[in-house]
Specification:
Structural class of chain A: alpha/beta
Number of helices of chain A: 16
Distance between the termini of chain A: 45 Å
Shape of chain A: globular
Radius of gyration of chain A: 26 Å
Helix content of chain A: 40-55%
Largest interface: A-B, 94 and 95 residues
Oligomer: homodimer
Number of strands of chain A: 17
Chain lengths: 433, 433
C-alpha cells in the first residue's frame, strides 16, 4: 500500500507555519504498515490543489489530505476535490445536522459560513469530526482512495485514529507489513557524542534503521524495525533497544516516549513523595511542564516563581544579607530557595533555580547561560552551578528546567548525578552531566 | 519567479523528523520576492529523487533542494541530480581541497567516505559550505535552476543567505516583485466568526490575499500583498490592515505579530506598573509566557503556583473557611488569591486563576473547563467565572492563561472587558469575551 500526504494552505506554503501534520500522519501510517512515499504542500489555490490531487491519484493507492475544510473563503479543498473527481458539490444533510448539533452543544449560534462546510463532493463518504465543525470525507479519485481531514492538529489526529486507520487496515488484507518504532529519550549528551556511542548498531542489527532526533533539550533515539512477521520485528526492536540503553547508560530517562516531567511525576507518585519548586530564571517553566501531566496535583504542591529579590526574601525566607553578598545567582541562594520552598510548601522535596537566561544581565563572572540549581531532600540540601552557552533565552530556560528535573530524577532513583562543581566565578565551563 | 522546494530523506518521509527547513526556505524566499508554489518531500531513494527533480524542472524557474549530500551510502542527491540532468558525476578538485581543509582545521582524520562528497554532477557550480563537509552545488536541469544544500539546518541557512539569495537577486534583474505580509493577532472570537467579519475584504482590496490561522488560543489574520512597486504594496497592506482592525474591534491585541505576553509587558512597562500572579489551574504557564519576554524582570515580580489548598492559605493568605465553603474554584477564592499575591509581591496588579483543566476533577456544578479569574488593581479586586468546553488539558491551560492576560491587557488599556458573569453553578455556558 503506497500512500502520499498532501497539506494545503498558504500558511504552510509561505513558511509562516511549519507543517507538523504531515510528519505526524507519516509516522502514524508507517507504524501501521503503510509505506509513505511523498509529502506535498500547495497553497490555498483551487487549481493548485486540483492539480496535486490528480497527480497523486495517478501514483498512490491512498492519500491523506489536510486543510481547507474550514468555513472561510480560503477553504477550497472540497471544491478542488470535486473538480478532480469530476463530480459536483452537494449538501450532505447528515453533515449539516452534525454541524448544527455542534453549535447547539456549545450554545452558540451557527453562522451561514458554517453551512458551507456541509457541502461535500458527490459520492464522498462523510467522516465525523467529534471535536470541530469541519467534517472530513473519503473520496475515490481514479483508483486512489483519498481521506480529507481538517488542518487543526487535534481534530486531524483524532479523525486519523478513529476514521482513517480502521479503514486502511481493512483495505490491506493479507499483505500486511509491520513497521514498529521505539523511542529512547536521553538527556545530557550532545547529539554528536550520542551518535558516536551508537556506532556499530547497524552492524549488530542490520534490519534496524536508526534515527537521531534532537527534540531540544532532549535527544531522542528512534529505532525502526520492519518485517512481515510482527513478533519477529518486535523482538528485534526489543534487543536493539537494550543495546542502545547499555550504550547510553544513565542518560536514558524513558523508553516509551514519555517526557521528563512525566518520568519525574511517576517516581514521586511511586514514592508517595511531594514536590515544591522555587523558580527564578526558569520563570515558571518547570511548574508548567509538571502540571501538563494529568493528576500532577497528587504530588506537585507549590511553586514560587520569585523573579524579584523581594519575593525570594518574603516568600522563601532567603536572607537579604546573602543576596547582597553573593548576588541572586549563586549556590548559596538556590540552597536557601530550595530549603525555603520545601518548608513553605510542606513538600518532601524542594527544587530551585536561579540563573541568567539572557539576552542581558550577564557579567564576566556570571555570563548569560549560568544557572545554579538547588535541591532540598528530607536528608540534605545541595546546590550546583552549571553553564550552558548555547541558544537563545527560550532554549536556555528549557535547558535549565530540564537539568533541574533531571537532577531530581536521579536523586529519586537513588543514583544522584555526580556533577563537577565549578567554583563561584569559574566562569566559562562547558556542560556535562 | 516561481520556486519549488524539495526536501529529501527517510527521516522526513517517515515523519521521524518534522521538516522545518522547507518552512524556513519558503519564508526567506517569499520575503525576497520569490513566489514559492510547492514543497515536496521524498525519501533516500535515488529513483524517487530523480523523478522529483524532473517534475520540478518542468514547472519551476528555480528550486531549492535539501539533504542527501552527506558522506554515507544513503546520501544520494548528487547521483540523482546527475541522472536527471543527463550528465556524469565528476571529481571537483576544489571541493576536495575544501573538505580536506575542513578536516585539517578540525584536527580530525578525513575518511574515504568524505571523498565521495567531492563528486559533483558535470557542469555544476560548487557552493562553499564554510561550516560543514558537504559542499552544495548549483545545476540547471532543463530551464530550471537548482540549488542543492545540506539538510543540517545551520549549514543550510548560512548557505541560503550567502550563496543562494545573492544569485537569485541577480537572476531576477528588473522583475523584482514584493510580497509584504502583515499579521494581526486577535483573541476572543471563534475562527468562523472572525472569518465572517472579514467578508468583503477581498472585494474592498482585490489585490490582498487573506489567511486565517488558528494559532491556538489566538487567531492570526494574515494579509498578503503583492506587487512590483514596493511602496504601493505596503500602502495597500496598511489600508487593508486598518480595515481589518476596525472589523475585529477590541479583539485585536497586536498588529506586528507580538504575542499577548509581550503586549501586556509593554503596557506594564509604559505605565511603570508591576505584576504578581497567582496560578492554580494554569500551573505556571502565565509566568512562563511572561518570562519568555526579554527584560520581563522589570515588571514581573512574583508568581505563586499554588496547586495545593495549603499553599493558597500559607502563601497567599486565602481563608481556609472560604476554601471549605466555596471550594478552590470560585470567584471568592481568586479574589483572595489576586489580592494576596498583590500584597505579598508588592506589585501594582495581582492576577489569579483557579479552575479545572481536566481530564479529571470536574463536577456537575463545575465541569472540566471551568475557570475563575481574579484581578486586583490599585483600586479594586474583581473576579469572573468562565467556561471553555474545548480541547485537552494543554489547550485548556492555554485558554485560561490567555484569557487572564487579556483581562489584564484590557484593564491596563482603561477599557475593561465587560464579561457576563455566570452564577455559581450555572454550569455549561459558553465562552464570550
Amino acid at each position: 500500500l503506497i500512500a502520499e500526504i498532501l497539506s494545503t494552505g498558504d500558511e504552510i506554503r509561505t513558511g509562516a507555519l511549519i507543517d507538523s501534520n504531515s510528519a505526524y500522519i507519516a509516522e502514524t501510517l508507517q507504524a501501521t504498515g503503510v509505506f509513505v512515499s511523498r509529502h506535498l504542500t500547495v497553497g490555498d489555490d483551487v487549481d493548485a490543489i486540483e492539480q496535486a490531487l490528480k497527480e497523486i491519484a495517478n501514483r498512490a493507492d491512498v492519500a491523506l489530505v489536510t486543510g481547507g475544510l474550514g468555513p472561510t473563503v480560503d477553504d477550497l479543498t472540497p471544491e478542488a476535490a470535486s473538480r478532480a473527481a469530476g463530480v459536483s458539490l452537494v449538501l450532505d444533510r447528515a453533515a449539516l445536522t452534525a454541524i448544527e448539533g455542534f453549535f447547539q452543544k456549545m450554545g452558540r449560534p451557527m453562522s451561514d459560513s458554517n453551512r458551507k462546510q456541509a457541502m461535500l463532493p458527490e459520492g464522498a463518504l462523510r467522516l465525523d469530526n467529534p471535536i470541530g465543525t469541519a467534517p472530513g470525507f473519503m473520496l475515490y479519485i481514479g483508483a486512489c482512495r483519498f481521506f480529507f481531514l481538517p488542518g487543526v492538529p487535534t481534530e486531524m489526529r483524532r479523525m486519523l485514529a478513529e476514521q482513517v486507520l480502521p479503514r486502511l487496515s481493512a483495505q490491506e488484507g493479507g499483505n500486511r507489513r509491520y513497521y514498529p518504532v521505539r523511542t529512547i529519550s536521553t538527556f545530557g549528551l550532545p547529539e554528536s557524542v550520542a551518535g558516536e556511542r551508537l556506532v556499530g548498531l547497524t552492524e549488530e542489527f542490520p534490519e534496524i534503521t536508526l534515527g537521531l532526533r534532537a527534540k531540544f533539550p532532549e535527544i531522542q533515539i528512534k529505532l525502526y524495525a520492519e518485517g512481515d512477521d510482527e513478533t519477529r520485528a518486535h523482538d528485534m526492536l526489543e534487543r536493539a533497544s537494550e543495546w542502545v540503553a547499555r550504550k547510553m547508560e544513565r542518560h536514558v530517562f524513558s523508553t516509551d516516549g514519555s517526557p521528563m516531567e512525566a518520568v519525574v511525576g511517576r517516581l514521586l507518585r511511586k514514592q508517595k513523595a511531594t514536590l515544591g519548586v522555587a523558580e527564578s530564571c526558569t520563570g515558571g517553566l518547570i511548574s508548567h511542564w509538571l502540571t501538563e501531566v494529568p493528576g500532577s496535583s497528587d504530588y506537585f504542591l507549590f511553586s514560587a516563581v520569585t523573579y524579584s529579590n523581594e519575593a525570594k526574601i518574603r516568600v522563601l525566607g532567603v536572607e537579604e544579607e546573602s543576596l547582597l553578598k553573593f548576588g541572586a545567582v549563586h549556590e548559596e541562594i538556590v540552597r536557601q530557595m530550595a530549603h525555603g520552598v520545601r518548608r513553605v510548601s510542606g513538600a518532601a522535596y524542594g527544587l530551585a533555580t536561579s540563573g541568567i537566561a539572557g539576552p542581558d544581565g550577564g557579567t564576566d563572572e556570571k555570563p548569560v547561560g549560568t544557572v545554579c540549581i538547588g535541591l532540598a531532600t528530607p536528608e540534605k540540601v545541595e546546590a550546583r552551578r552549571l553553564f550552558f552557552p548555547f541558544g537563545d533565552r527560550t532554549r536556555k530556560k528549557q535547558m535549565f528546567a530540564m537539568t533541574a528535573l533531571n537532577l531530581l530524577r536521579r536523586e529519586l532513583l537513588g543514583d544522584p548525578v555526580e556533577l563537577w562543581h565549578t567554583n563561584p566565578g569559574a566562569g566559562h565551563r562547558s556542560f556535562s552531566l
